[in-house]
């Protein structure tokens, strides 16, 4: 009998893909933990004014949300266009609501 080498090659390719994905997930998880520790330390020290801390916290929050979407919710993969569009639409709607409420509150 002849051995099917195509299956062995595809298995090796799949294992390599999974290994690479696990590496990216681990790195992004470590970065999210680091951002969380930095955020807690910024708030716990209280040395700076809130005017400087809040924008830094918001930027780190947005980076963590991006990590969650792309690495853990797999929105970067093919075939996830509809869920990605719904999530981005929801984020846009939330942004508009917050901006509108902020405008009304300060006007």
Number of continuous helical runs: 3
- The sequence of SSEs as H and E is HHH
Q: Give the class from helix and strand content and strand pairing.
A: mainly alpha
Instruction: Specify the biggest β-sheet.
Output: none
Helical percentage: over 70%
Radius of gyration computed on alpha carbons: 21 Å
Strand percentage lies at under 5%
Give the number of domains.
2
Kindly state the mean pLDDT as a whole number? 84
Distance between the termini: 81 Å
Morphology call? flat
Tell me how many strands there are: 0
**Poorly predicted regions:** none
Would you summarize the structure shown here?
The chain has 107 residues and is mainly α. The protein is built from three helices and no strands.
Describe the protein.
It is flat and about 65 Å long. The model has no long low-confidence stretch (mean pLDDT 84). Helix 1 packs antiparallel against helix 2. It is mainly α and 107 residues long. It has three helices and no strands. The protein has two domains: 76 residues; 30 residues.
Question: Topology, pairings included?
Answer:
Elements: H1 5-45, H2 50-72, H3 81-106
Helix pairs in contact: 1-2
Keywords:
mainly alpha, 2 domains, 107 residues, 84% helix
């Amino acid at each position: 009998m002849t051995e099917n080498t195509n299956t062995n090659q595809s298995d090796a390719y799949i294992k390599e893909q999974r290994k690479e994905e696990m590496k990216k997930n681990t790195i992004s998880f470590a970065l999210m933990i680091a951002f969380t520790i930095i955020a807690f330390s910024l708030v716990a020290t209280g040395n700076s004014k809130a005017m400087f801390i809040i924008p830094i916290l918001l930027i780190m929050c947005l980076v963590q949300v991006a990590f969650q979407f792309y690495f853990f919710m797999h929105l970067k993969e093919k075939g996830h266009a509809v869920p990605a569009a719904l999530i981005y639409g929801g984020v846009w709607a939330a942004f508009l609501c917050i901006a509108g409420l902020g405008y009304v509150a300060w006007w």
